[in-house]
Amino acid sequence: MQSLFPDHIDLTAKVMDFQLQRQNIVSANLANINTPGYKARTLEFEKDLQAALGLSEAGAVARTHPGHFPLAFSADQTDASVARSLTPRVVQGVDNVDLDAEMAAMAKNNLLYNTLATVMQKNFSGMKQLIADGGK
Amino acid sequence: MDFMTAIDVGASALKAERTHLNVISMNLANAKTTRTVDGGPYRRKEVIFKETEVQSPFSKAMNSALDQEVKGVRVESVQNDRRPLKQVYEPGHPDADEEGYVSYPDINVVEEMTNMLQAMRAYEANVSTITTSKSMYSKALEIGR
Question: Which chain A positions have a beta carbon within 8 Å of B142's beta carbon?
Fold first, then answer.
């Protein structure tokens, strides 16, 4: 069914949620940078998300028959998973979080988040313009 | 999962690192202290960090397993370093023993300075997580404009 909002709004919102969660995980890692024995966490969602969208490295799954299940993405059923490194990395007793890697992950995450927020904003502003000017 | 969690976690780390810096400056200030309230020379202090929950037990129980992974940090205790005291031959010193040796705390200025740099970098890293969270927050507020 055609709806007022484009299909990818749900997807974009979900990815933004995951990126916020990743930001939380990164700040937890950086907060514990001097904690001995702390195990750094990472948040993985890209693969699960691609599976949910029916995409894989081999390409998209084709729907070749109308009787097949539609490959609808459901934002509610996709979740991220937190991976915890198995052993704390210990150098000189108190060095278990890789500062550079965490800062890079944070910068990347922040840029992607801002990009998606802009995409979303443009979507809505386009819609607003359509509503305002469409009846003229 | 909200923006305040990231800021709370960052704030807990800022507080812990500030305590770390205070302890480092205490060590440097007392590098030559031979008299303390407890008697004997000053002992080098070391801070012990511990990962901790940033949320109240109730809100934690209401959260998903994913959110419960997010931990802050706090200073659990400030403990005496166990390394032995440094014996320096200064027979004229009022605190020298019968053989003329004075016990000083074994504080290495270079070691303290590197610890200080480490604490400062950790502090800066956490300031930058808070700044990033804030910029993400204001970007999300722009969506509806």
Answer: 117, 121
Q: For residue A8, what pLDDT band results from cuts at 50, 70 and 90?
A: confident
Residues of chain B contacting residue A94, judged by C-beta atoms under 8 Å apart: 49
**Hey, are the CB atoms on B139 and A117 less than 8 Å from each other?**
yes
- Which residues 6+ apart lie within 8 Å of A70 measured at CB? A63
Closest of B36, B27, B19, B17 to residue B111, by C-alpha: B27
pLDDT in tens, B12-38: 999 999 999 999 999 999 999 999 998
End-to-end Cα separation, chain B, in angstroms:
23
Range B99-103 average pLDDT: 92
User: Nearest CB to B50: which of A23, A25, A35?
Assistant: A35
Q: How confident is the model at residue A94 (pLDDT cuts 50, 70, 90)?
A: very low
Supply B143's token pair.
């969506």
Which of A12, A24, A109 to mutate to test binding with chain B, by most B CBs within 10 Å of its CB?
A24
Rg of chain B in Å (alpha carbons): 22
Residue for token pair 């991976």: A83
Parallel, antiparallel or unpaired: strands A41-44 and A81-84: antiparallel
- Indicate if ipTM > 0.85: no
Within 8 A by CB and 6+ apart from A121, the residues are: B142, B143, B144, B145
Q: Which of A20, A24, A118 sits opposite B9 (nearest CB)?
A: A24
Q: Is the dihedral of CA A102, B140, B15, A42 positive or negative?
A: negative
* A42 close to B (CB below 8 A): no
CB-closest option in A17, A25, A114 to B139: A114
